Amino acid sequence: MKKIVFVTGTRADFSKIKSLMLKVEQSQDFELFVFVTGMHLSHIFGFTSTEIDKYHFKNIFKYINFDKYFQMDKALASTIDGFSKFIAELDPDLIVVHGDRIEPLAAAIVGSLNNILVAHIEGGELSGTIDDSLRHSISKLAHIHLVNDERAKKRLMQLGEDEESIFIIGSPDLEILNSNELSLKAAKEHYEINFKNYAIAMFHPVTTELNTIKEQSENFVLALKESGKNYIVIYPNNDLGFEFILESYKSLEGLENFRIFPSLRFEYFITLLKNADFIIGNSSCILKEALYLQIPRILVGSRQNKRAGSEDCMRVDSKKEEILKAISKVHKMDFKQVSTPQILNSSQMFFTYLQSGKFFAINKQKAFKDILVKE
Ligand code: UDP
Predict the structure, then answer these.
(1) What values do phi and psi take at 111, rounded to 5?
(2) Where is the UDP-N-acetylglucosamine 2-epimerase domain (predicted)?
(3) d(CA 329, CA 320)
(4) Which of 163, 169, 226, 320 lies deepest, with the highest CB count within 10 Å?
(5) What's the CA gap between 190 and 171, in Å, rounded?
C-alpha cells in the first residue's frame, strides 16, 4: 500500500485539501498520513487542529513549529527539522502540499532533498506579496503540480516546469462550497451571532508593509466602527505583523455590532459568507469563494493586487475615508460577468490521477524546460 502524507498548516489549506485527504483515507490502495503543524496548534489562532480531529484520520501527527514570536524563518527551519524526522521513519511514497506558506515550503524542501515525490496544489497563482515567492519556490521543488486553471499551468511552464507534470484539477474547496448544506440558522446559533444583516471582515498583514501595518489596521477598524454596520471579524494569519492587527481588534471587543473569532469552521464560514451583505478585507477568499458566490466584495490594500478576479472587486487603499466610502456604496456594486469555474469535482480528478499511477511515473529528476532551447 502506498503511503501518502498530506501537510496542513492553516485553516486556509485544510479547507482546500480535506476532500482529497478523505478520498485517500477511504481508499484500499493508499494509506493516508496527516502532518498537522503551524497555526492549527496555536491557541491564539483558534487551535484549529480540533477541526481536523473531527475527521478521525487514522494516522495523524502534530508538530508545533513556532515559538511565541511566530517568526516565519524560524518556523520554516523548525518545520524542516520536524518534518524531516517524521518522513525519515515513515518513508512515504508521496507528499502532498498546498499553497504558499512556510509549512508547504518546508515539506517540499524535505521531500525533494530526500528523493520523495512532492505534489503541490494551487501553484502558478499570483497574489502580489511574499506569498508569490513562497508559492513559486514550492513549485520549483515539487515534482507534480495540481493547478487551478490554464493560466496557472502557463505560469508554471514559464518557471521552466515540464508540461507533463502539470494537471489541472480546479480549486478543491469549490466542490465543498457547492455541496455545503448547513443552514444559516445552525451557523448563527453555533457561533451565537444575533445579527440579521452582517458583513464579514478579514484583514491580514502584508509582510513588506510592516512599517505601516499598525496604521492600516487602525484605519480598517475605525472605518468598520464608523460604518455602523454589523460585522463578523475573523483573525488574520500569523504572518509578520499580525500582532498589530490583533491589537487594533481589541477596541472592537464588547461592541454589540461586532463578533470576533480567531477562526470559523469551514462549512460554517461558507454558510455565513453566502448570507453576508458583503465581505471586506484582503483575504484570498474574496477572490475565490466570495467571487464564486457573487457576494459584494471590498478589497482593502495591496495583498491581493495580482490575484485573478481583483479587477471585479471594489478596491480601496487602507485609508479610513476610502474604506468608508466603499462600504456606503457596496450594495450598489455592479457585478461584471464572472466566468464561473467549470471544475467542481477536483477531489475525484485528483484521485483518478493518483490511481492511474501517473503521479508515480513522474521523474524525480526535474528538468528545466528552457525557452531558449528548441526541443
Ligand atoms: N477559512 C475558514 N474559516 C475562517 C476563515 C477562513 O475556513 O474563519 C478558510 C476559507 O476557505 C478561506 C480560506 O480559509 O477561503 C483562506 O482564508 P484566509 O483569509 O485565512 O487566508 P488567505 O488565503 O487569505 O491567506
Answers:
(1) -60, -50
(2) 23-337
(3) 14
(4) 169
(5) 27
Please indicate whether residue 289, judged by its CB atom, sits closer than 6 Å to ligand 1: yes
- Which residues of the chain fall below pLDDT 70? 334-341
| Residue 292 near ligand 1, beta carbon < 6 Å | no
Q: Identify the residue whose cell numbers are 471544475.
A: 343
Is the minimum distance from the CB of 233 to ligand 1 under 6 angstroms? no
Look up the pTM and report it.
0.94
Which domains are present in the chain?
A: 2-171+342-361 (3.40.50.2000), 182-332 (3.40.50.2000)
Phi, psi of 181, rounded to the nearest 5 degrees:
-115, 10
In the prediction, which pLDDT does 39 show?
A: 97
Name residues whose C-beta falls within 8 Å of residue 32's C-beta, 6 or more positions apart in sequence.
4, 6, 21, 24, 25, 57, 58, 59
Q: State how far the Cα of 8 lies from the Cα of 49, in Å rounded to an integer.
A: 9
Write down the pLDDT at residue 312: 83
